[in-house]
Every structure is written in structure tokens, then in C-alpha cells.
Amino acid sequence: GADALAQGKYDQGRILLHTMIYTYPDSPLVAQAKLLVFYAAAKQGGPRHAGSEKLLRELERHYQQQGWFKQ
């Protein structure tokens, strides 16, 4: 997924990352994959792209729980 994003293939990258997220939901790489999905969505139209606002809230919640963001 990340390789596809690096090549500007945002749709393909998102599909691959979503596959990883839903196939391995307990993987420690899920948070990074979600961040990359958000990045791809943002590159294609900003925060208004379908699903990106929800994903941003999920990421904020995750990183708040990790102590990376202040609540």
C-alpha cells in the first residue's frame, strides 16, 4: 500500500491498506495503515473526501489513548 501511495496510485494504495486493516485488525501496523489511508484521501481532495473525517477522529482517539495528543 505504501509503495502504491509513493507512486501516486492513491486508490490502489487505499485498497491495499484497507485490506490489511480488515484482514489483520490486531496488527500493530493498523494505526500506521489508517494514517496512510487518511493521507491518500487528503491528497485526493482534502478532509472532505469520503471517510477521511471519520478516520481522522479514529486516529485522534487512538493517539490520545497512547498519550500522543492531549484531550
Key phrases:
single chain, 71 residues, mainly alpha
Descriptive notes:
The chain is globular. It has four helices and no strands. The mean pLDDT is 79. It has 71 residues and is mostly helical.
Put the structure in a nutshell.
The chain is an all-alpha fold and 71 residues long.
Helix content: 55-70%
User: How many helical elements?
Assistant: 4
* Structural shape: globular
Structural class: mainly alpha
Biggest sheet record? none
How many beta-strand segments?
Answer: 0
How far apart the termini lie comes to 31 Å
Write down the overall mean pLDDT: 79
Question: Unreliable stretches, pLDDT < 50, 5 or more residues?
Answer: none
Q: What percent strand? A: under 5%
Rg (CA only) = 12 Å
Q: How do the SSEs run, as a string of H and E? A: HHHH
Show the helix and strand layout.
Blueprint: H1 2-6, H2 10-23, H3 30-43, H4 52-65
Helix pairs in contact: 2-3, 3-4
